[in-house]
Amino acid sequence: MTEPTTTAPSGRPAAGDGRTIATASFIGTAIEFYDYYIYGTAAALVLNKMFFPTLSSVAGTLASLATFAIGFIARPLGAVVFGHFGDRIGRKTTLVVSLLLMGLSTACIGLLPGYSTLGVAAPILLVLLRVLQGIGLGGEWGGAALLSTEHAPKGRRGLYAAAPQMGSPVGYFVATAVFWALSEWLPKDAFDGWGWRIPFLLSFVLVAIGLRIRLQVAETPAFADFVATRHANKVPIAAVVRRYPKQLLLGAGSIVVVYVMFYTASTYCLTYTTKTLGVPRNTMLGLTLIAVVVLGVATFVVAQQSDVFGRRALMLGGAAFGVVWSLVLFPLLNTENPVLIVVGLSGALLCMGIVWGPLGAFLPELFGTDVRYSGAGIAYNLGGVLGGGAAPLIVAQLGETRGTTAVGVFMAVMAVISLLSIYALPETRHRDLDEV
What we know:
Blueprint: H1 18-45, H2 47-51, H3 57-88, H4 91-111, H5 115-118, H6 121-138, H7 140-149, H8 157-160, H9 162-185, H10 188-195, H11 197-201, H12 203-214, H13 221-229, H14 236-243, H15 245-276, H16 281-309, H17 311-333, H18 338-365, H19 372-401, H20 404-424
């Protein structure tokens, strides 16, 4: 992906070289999953004490996870707002604004005083920052995926779309490495008091890097050609709902398994193994790092191979594997054997990677250029609400009241939703983006 991109159909050269385009689309997704992991981990381990100290331990954890869910609920709003401008004024400008809102909101959480300093204002401000963060995140992935797919040569969209998808394992790996280092170097009291803020504050650095890269990339050739020959929709959300209702709903369903596997493996399994089984936190973080490597390899390889075998068949295989592995994961964890634990985590993230890899090309290919930012972004974030927003609360409640067998069954049901959704959608590999 380091060679120059092909000439746009209009005769204008595509903006930027392959490396710059890939990095610009990669950085936002990396920050997104970095944020997802650090907030989910902090919500499970620290935020209940910091922002909800008047509640019991279980109630405080559920309250902090509720703030986690609020961020996801705000994401479809962000997809609508940023999709509106992305489909009307262009991908580049919209992506710059979404990156700033997303990253700065994340960093500000790291600066927010707790309940002991601000009283009830502390959790209120935390919720407000999560809403702003969710709005920014809602506009991010759709635009990042389009930045790659709309620059890609025909027959290589899966490979190019691997760039934003690789942001997931890289962001996850960096976040896990940061938490592992903090757990290794800081006493528990120091981590609970101020150490948890460090991963949030590092978002300042990530945003600065991402902003510098994105400002170097011009508009995508597909959108430039569209605005040169046709008029943009006045209200893209209305157009996409009217013309692509099936693609919106089924596209959302296709991503549910990704978020359920990611949340469970990254956050709930960490909490369960350390607090319930007594596995040392550093051990679990180290095992998670190994599993994240599996996620990264699977994401890239399957995204690339989707240009050969198609998106749909590979994603169906990943979702079917997720149904089975959901019922295997916790029996492996319950052995408390590090080798079997890492096998369990790696299997969950392998399932995620198989579906996640082709998704960067698959969702954009379902929609026309005039509504592609809105369509891909809304479908992605609706799936995120169900799989990533509601799942943490449901999994935590099921684990507390019914045990891990119930958690595994819930995960399997979510994987079935994705399996049926992908099955009901067509193959998109050979579609011309200008003719969808």
